[in-house]
Design a protein that fits this description.
Length: 360
């Protein structure tokens, strides 16, 4: 007979479960109360969380400087969009040249199409990693940036596959709040478990010192390729969600500026912090919409300026420069959220030590 006693759940586990329940309730309340525009921004926050975490896995935890994320997003977005479109939609979109016959009548549900888009992006990321990850620092950044531009040119010219510069329109709005935030939560949990595993420790050891990591028996090149592949897969998933969030895509949406937007979030949140990426993704996404008035005419009291398109991005670029100069570690540095940290600063009751629990 088993006489072992069940261990009580720890305080941190209970707090985590409670926070998860509150989060689900808030998602339901937001979906019911907020207007459509607010919910669109809310969903975009979730997509940017996935993108920031995927880029942080490469740049922050593995120590590789990649600038090709827009390309992986484009692969996932176009793959998911083409596979979910009905034959009638494809006929309406491909007006200059018809789509290749073997794709004309193919239609998948959203989830399989999303996963296929992520897997294809991951496969391309693996191929690019095998070819380019022996490069380091600026050379790797240039190689991945060149890859992203190659993908954009292919999308523009492969008319029978992507409809070229006309893009794809009238996509179904599959990216609901539950799809967006469910994917963001799963991605966050996956990254937390990955970084705490032996693979995560290998990634961080490569980031800190490649030579020392190799001397400890770590397959440095293999770990780099693995990190790059996982990151590419997540970027492809985010691209598929973005396509069915916007309901229209074209190659111009996946230029280098898209990678810059995600890099901005990672740097501001903290390179090497999952918590920082999540917080910064929400703050930056909301701020970009809140500061959209900067692109239009401004009444300064003594004068009215004409609209300057892109002025809000100048603001964020200046903010990035300030962070790089004065706080290179970003908002969180490499620190992560924990309930114990909240207890130490007095926001939660302090957990009793074993000696205190033992009595007087």
């Amino acid at each position: 007979m088993n006489t072992s006693k069940k261990l009580p759940m720890s305080r941190n586990t209970l707090l985590t479960l409670g926070a998860a329940v509150i989060g689900l309730v808030l998602l339901f309340v937001f979906d019911e109360l907020f207007d459509r525009f607010t919910m669109q921004i809310f969903k975009l926050c979730a997509i940017n969380i996935i993108l920031a975490l995927s880029l942080n896995l490469i740049n922050g935890f593995t120590g590789l400087f990649s600038l090709g994320h827009a390309g992986f997003m484009a692969v996932g977005a176009y793959t998911c969009a083409i596979l979910t479109m009905s034959p009638e939609q494809k006929e309406v979109n491909y007006v200059i040249q018809p789509i290749v016959p073997w794709l004309a009548n193919v239609q998948f549900p959203f989830l399989p199409a999303l996963l296929i888009g992520g897997l294809l992006a991951g496969l391309i990321g693996w191929l690019l990693g095998v070819i380019s990850l022996r490069l380091r620092d600026d050379y790797l950044a240039i190689a991945t940036l060149g890859f992203s531009e190659i993908i954009r040119v292919i999308l523009t010219n492969a008319m029978t596959f992507t409809n070229g510069s006309l893009g794809l329109k009238g996509l179904a709005r599959f990216t609901t709040m539950w799809w967006a935030w469910g994917s963001a939560i799963l991605t966050t949990l996956f990254l937390v478990l990955l970084i705490k595993s032996s693979y995560g420790r290998a990634f961080k050891s490569i980031r800190d010192n490649e030579i020392a990591a190799e001397s400890m028996g770590i397959n440095v090149f293999g770990m780099k390729v693995l990190s790059f592949t996982i990151s590419s897969f997540l970027a492809g998933i985010a691209g598929g969600l973005l396509a069915h969030y916007l309901t229209t895509i074209d190659p111009k949406q996946f230029i280098f500026l898209k990678t810059f937007d995600i890099l901005l979030i990672v740097v501001l949140g903290g390179v090497g912090s999952i918590t920082g990426s999540v917080v910064a993704a929400i703050v930056v996404t909301i701020s970009m919409e809140a500061l959209r008035f900067l692109d239009g005419p401004l009444n300064l009291g003594f004068m009215v300026t004409s609209g300057v398109p892109g002025l809000r991005m100048v603001f964020f670029s200046a903010l990035l420069m300030v962070v790089v100069i004065y706080r290179q570690q970003g908002l969180m540095g490499k620190a992560e959220f924990s309930w114990d940290a909240l207890s130490r600063i007095g926001l939660l009751p302090r957990r009793k030590s074993k000696s205190e629990k033992g009595g007087r």
